[in-house]
């Protein structure tokens, strides 16, 4: 697999693919971007979710380290 920057992986996330950082050494399986939708008739803005091995999905926001990292990879999940 090819390591990428967050800037390089972002178009793939916007296209519905999943990604992970190889520098994460915990239970993180992948992050994904949930597209804009509707909730109770109002617009729901896009947001990131993270899937871990020991939990359900959780909201995720990239840290400065995540944005500057060069170890992002696409995953097939």
TrEMBL record:
Name of the protein this chain belongs to: Methionyl-tRNA synthetase
Species this protein is from: Lacticaseibacillus paracasei subsp. paracasei 8700:2
InterPro entries reported in the protein's UniProt record: Tad2-like_dom
Pfam families xref list: Tad2-like
Record GO terms (molecular function): aminoacyl-tRNA ligase activity
Superkingdom of the organism of origin: Bacteria
Residues in Thoeris anti-defense 2-like domain copies: 4-75
Alphabetized UniProt keyword annotations: Aminoacyl-tRNA synthetase, Ligase
